[in-house]
Amino acid sequence: MAIYDTPMHSLQGEPLDLRRFEDKALLIVNVASRCGLTPQYSGLESLQEQYADRGFTVLGVPCNQFGGQEPGSAEEIEAFCSTTYGVSFPMTEKLEVNGSGRHRLYAALTEVADAEGNAGDIQWNFEKFLVAPGGQSIVRFRPTTEPSAPEVAAAIEAALPG
After folding, report:
1. d(CA 119, CA 149)
2. For residue 71, is it within any domain?
3. Nearest Cα residue to 91 out of 5, 4, 14
4. Domain that residue 125 falls in
């Protein structure tokens, strides 16, 4: 799938090859540190801890397009995530998910419809895309769907490799 060929960088500025996640179930989430939904980091980290050894990872994508709620530098974002929520999952560089500067990763993801059949722009911080190994399927969860929601767990279980 095209998302694996998308050039990106990690939060630390190093090249991030998405092909390293191609054999995993991958939950891609646009994140922000100063949002009412920021406590979802706890749930995302819980998912990472629960499923990491079964071929799953969360990929956090900082984005400052919604109310300026991710204004920090890469160093500030990393410090906030690790000290406040103990985030252990990988994070990308700060990206734009909507508009003319939309990153190629999100150009592909925004074509995916949610459970109600709606595709298009990211609505807010913490919109989630679960990509099955090899990109065979993608499930979209809107921002207010908590990482601990039963439908998220069921989708992860169905997407786990092997």
Report:
1. 21
2. yes
3. 14
4. 2-16+32-159
Specify the number of domains making up the chain: 1
Residue 11 in domain? yes
pLDDT digits (tens, 9 = 90+) for 114-144: 999 999 999 999 999 999 999 989 999 999 9
Interval 95-101 mean pLDDT: 97
Q: Catalytic residue at 35?
A: yes
Catalytic residue among 35, 44, 91, 95: 35
> How far apart are alpha carbons 157 and 153 in whole angstroms?
6
The answer to whether the beta carbons of residues 119 and 142 sit under 8 Å apart is no
Nearest-CA neighbor of 71 among 94, 53, 91, 92?
94
Name residue, tokens 């592909």. 108
Instruction: Give the type of residue at 5.
Output: D
CA gap 41, 21 in Å, rounded: 20
CATH number at residue 59: 3.40.30.10
Helix (H) or strand (E) holding 49: helix 40-51
Give the pLDDT confidence of 52-79 residue by residue, as tens digits. Answer: 999 999 999 999 999 999 999 999 999 9
**Torsion angle defined by CA atoms of residues 140, 146, 147 and 150, in that order, rounded to the nearest 10 degrees:** -80
